[in-house]
Amino acid sequence: MRELLTAFVRRVGDRMFAEIVVGPSDDALSTLELTTWMELEQEGYLKPQHSFGCQEWQLTARGWLKGLEVSDQLNSHATRSRATELARALKAHVKGRASSHGEIADERDLAPRIGLPEGWIYNALASNLLNEVFPGDDMTVRQDFRFRCFRVPATFGMDWREPL
């Protein structure tokens, strides 16, 4: 499991996890048993993208987060630094607003403003990475599939004490 999720996260890099589809026929992953892929699908870490007899999967938001964890990236300085920049931007985005539906946030708008890759921002928001990096600060955002964006509540990270 660890090997497959680590390989997936490496392949994704800073792109959106939904853009990357791989399967057991991939040379680098051909040594892994098909049951490993199926187990990760049952756990909610992979989503099947099979077509024309070709078995392939993509990471889910939960799988991306678990992949960061098992590859020791979740608590890395790089991830924490990026998460801090994203949290700052989202807090500034909702400051002084009280919309009951939450403020719209889109990774395509955030990326150039904060200097982080769109794909990484999307993955972080879709997986609620900020709640993992800053536990107890309620930095939950909601994905709005209708408008292909995220909703950030006015209460986002209210008690967060920004790292120095």
Characterise this structure:
The protein has 164 residues and is mainly α. The chain has 2 domains: 69 residues, Arc Repressor Mutant, subunit A; 64 residues. It contains 7 helices and 5 strands; from the N terminus they run ααββααβαααββ. It has a 3-stranded antiparallel β-sheet. α1 packs across α3, α3 packs across α6 and α5 crosses α6. The longest helix has 18 residues. It is elongated. The mean pLDDT is 92.
Map the helices and strands.
Layout: H1 2-12, H2 34-42, E1 46-48, E2 57-59, H3 61-70, H4 77-94, E3 103-105, H5 107-114, H6 118-127, H7 129-133, E4 142-144, E5 149-152
Antiparallel strand pairs: 1-2, 3-5, 4-5
Helix pairs in contact: 1-3, 3-6, 5-6
Beta-strand residue fraction: 5-15%
Estimated helix fraction? 40-55%
Overall body shape: elongated
Gyration radius from CA atoms, angstroms = 17 Å
Please give the count of helices: 7
Please report the distance between the alpha carbons of the first and last residues. 36 Å
Give a quick precis of the structure.
The protein is mainly α and 164 residues long. It is 43% helix and 10% strand. The chain has two domains: 2-70, Arc Repressor Mutant, subunit A; 89-152.
